[in-house]
Design a protein that fits this description.
The complex is a heterodimer of chains A (245) and B (388). Chain A contains seven helices and nine strands. Chain A is α+β, with helices and mostly antiparallel strands and 245 residues long. Chain B is 68% helix and 3% strand. The chains are: A alpha+beta (245), B mainly alpha (388). Chains A and B meet through β2, β3, α3, α4 and β6 of A and α5, α6 and β2 of B.
């Protein structure tokens, strides 16, 4: 009788321990440590964002642009008017102080994105984790989203493409834009290609991360300097913010 | 109106087939251009990542708002009980169908993925005014077909007033939708104002009236008749009213933009220092499209006035669509963009390609083809010598 109750007790202890190992510990630690496994659904508990410190952005450096092109298999046809650009460098001058600043410009991942509002098929959509992207299977190429974007963040694919990457589906006749390297994020790497390149160059102008994590790089950067949203008057509440100009 | 008072187009068979062949040729060239655009990609056109919508959209908007406006004659008859216009009403609905088909076709053929039309027709985002317009346009087509049937078939004629009233309301909503495509765009200073909706409505009424008169005049010439003075005088009255209302809304639109301080730079661009766009605005949209037609109307020359309205109207839509995009986006208020690889600074030029021109001409040819084929085979034309 005793041996039976012992084995029953041991069975219960082992079962609970196993459940803890499988479910409880990962669930607790996931919030602070582990990356999201690919099988896990996108959650609104994650809030991807980017902070750009223009004061640290080096004039003439195109590391972020090159990295984006490589990551997403973007290439041009030596036709700058129609070649796609997901991220670009812009040099601006303050009309009052003449201060010149360079900064990277990309999709601002608005919380109220006009591109998604106007898209007739819903191909332009915003994931609940804040990434604004284009479903390449339902985009009909009407370009209404490009008309609606206040930041000229989108490109239309004007040419026949070959050798696309499996991680970045693209095609002629569709609209595309920065998607915060969604493939990377979904496979657990919490860093965009542009940020990685900027860090590698030693500039640290781009800080990306999850706003829900207090110690994320984006939050750390945001704490250091007050940020602004471009065209804040439009109340689009972008996830990409700037400082330093 | 009895159907016996209507007739088919009395046209020489050889001339009929000749005209149809010429129009068919333009249509084929238009389709061929669209095919090349789809095969090669849009880089062969004048459109790019800066001028996103080009000549095909100018044609499409023009044709679609004409489709709505050309129904004026039928509305006067069915809704406002102007009996003089009753025999002219079926023709008006036929014109509307023809312009609608062509306008929609050019929109579809310019899509990056026209092969995904079935996606556009089955997957909707109802927050999008485009999605609403898909319903408004296809619904208008269905209503027009029923309307023509109710006017031409004596057995169901009693319903024509109800259908006509419904068509009238629908077309006002439709043109509101077309104007709102631009009016809801908060990004661009040329747009982002609800006044574009009524402006588009009055533009449609004006261009529709002008084009009806021109086409009816052409049909009469083919039929070796002349339009009666009574009809012409009525059209002159209508056109004059719409010209003044168009001028009023155009002034209101620009005054509104001047009053919105963040839009003022765009207004200065269009009104004073926009180069070709300023030139087109004053000489094309205002002088050629409104002022001269008003003056010409005082000489009772409806044909010349109508022709100028259409030319000026086309230029006006060009100024709205192309000029609105050519002006750079104001991404950094209080800053000047010094350098960008994506043409973020300065006014962007646009020259349409031959493919776009062929597509546009093809759409006009298709409109005329549909009208010619219909009036040669169905009784659309009133035959009362004195009145019409």
């Amino acid at each position: 009788m005793n041996s039976i109750s012992n084995s029953r007790r041991q069975f219960l202890i082992k079962s609970i321990s196993a459940a803890a190992v499988i479910y409880i510990i990962p669930a607790l630690s996931n919030k602070t440590l582990a990356a999201k496994p690919p099988s896990q659904k996108v959650s609104n508990k994650t809030r991807w964002a980017m902070h750009i410190d223009a004061a640290k952005c080096a004039d003439g450096c195109t590391a972020c642009v090159d990295a984006c092109n490589e990551e997403n298999g973007l290439y041009g046809f030596n036709r700058p008017k129609t070649d796609p650009q997901w991220i670009r460098k812009i040099k601006i001058k303050d009309i009052n102080t003449d201060k010149v600043t360079t900064l990277p410009m990309l999709c601002q991942h608005c919380e109220n994105p006009p591109c998604c509002d106007v898209c007739p098929t819903g191909a332009s959509f915003r994931r609940i984790d804040g990434i604004v992207m284009v479903n390449q299977h339902t985009c009909i190429g009407c370009r209404y989203c490009m008309m609606a974007c206040p930041f000229k963040a989108r490109s239309f694919v004007h040419e026949n493409l070959t050798q696309q990457l499996t991680t970045a589906p693209r095609g002629k006749g569709c609209v595309e834009s920065c998607n915060f390297c969604v493939g990377r994020l979904d496979s657990g790497k919490e860093m965009t290609a542009c940020e990685e390149a900027c860090i590698k160059e030693g500039h640290h102008a781009i800080s990306f991360g999850d706003l829900a994590k207090p110690l994320s790089r984006v939050n750390t950067s945001l704490k250091q300097s007050p940020s602004i949203k471009l065209r804040a008057d439009l109340k689009l509440n972008q996830r990409v913010t700037y400082t330093g100009f | 109106m009895r159907s016996s008072l209507m007739s088919k187009l009395e046209i020489n068979q050889k001339l009929f087939w000749f005209l149809l062949s010429i129009l068919g040729l333009f249509i084929l060239v238009g389709f061929f251009s669209a095919h090349i655009m789809e095969e090669e990609g849009h880089h062969i056109t004048g459109m790019n990542n800066q001028i996103i919508w080009g000549l095909p959209h100018v044609f499409a908007v023009m044709l679609i708002i004409i489709s709505s406006g050309v129904l004026n004659t039928a509305t006067l008859s069915s809704v406002f009980d102007k009996t003089l216009f009753k025999p002219l009403a079926p023709l008006s609905a036929l014109f509307a169908v023809a312009f609608l088909i062509s306008g929609l076709l050019i929109l579809v053929l310019d899509l990056g993925r026209p092969d995904r039309l079935v996606v556009a027709m089955t997957v909707y985002n109802f927050k999008s005014i485009f999605a609403w317009n898909i319903f408004l346009y296809s619904g208008f087509f269905a209503i027009l077909v029923i309307y023509i049937w109710s006017m031409l078939d004596f057995t169901v004629k009693k319903h024509s007033k109800a259908v006509g009233t419904f068509a009238f309301i629908w077309r006002i909503v439709l043109t509101t939708g077309t104007g709102s495509i631009f009016g809801f765009l908060i990004a661009r200073e040329a747009y982002a104002t609800a006044i574009l909706a009524p402006l588009f409505i009055v533009m449609s009424l004006l261009y529709g009236t002008a084009i009806y008169y021109l086409l009816y005049n052409l049909i009469c010439k083919l039929n070796k008749k002349i339009i009666s003075l009574e009809i012409t005088q009525n059209f002159i009255k209508l056109l004059r009213i719409f010209l003044y209302i168009n001028l009023y809304f155009l002034i209101l639109y620009h005054l509104t933009n001047i009053y919105i301080s963040k839009h003022i730079d765009y207004e200065l661009f269009i009104l004073f220092n926009g180069g070709i766009y300023t030139f087109l605005f004053w000489l094309g949209q205002i002088l050629l499209g409104i002022i001269i037609p008003i003056l010409v109307l005082s000489n009772k020359n409806m044909s010349i006035s109508s022709l100028l309205v259409i030319v000026g109207g086309f230029i006006g839509i060009w100024v709205i669509i192309i000029g609105g995009q050519a002006y750079p986006l104001n991404m950094f208020p209080n800053h000047e963009i010094v350098e960008s690889s994506f043409y973020d600074s300065g006014v962007y030029p646009y020259t349409p390609s031959l493919y776009e021109i062929a597509l546009g001409l093809g759409s006009i040819a298709l409109t005329l083809f549909i009208i010619l084929a219909a009036i040669a085979n169905l009784k659309f034309i009133p035959i009362d010598e004195n009145k019409y």
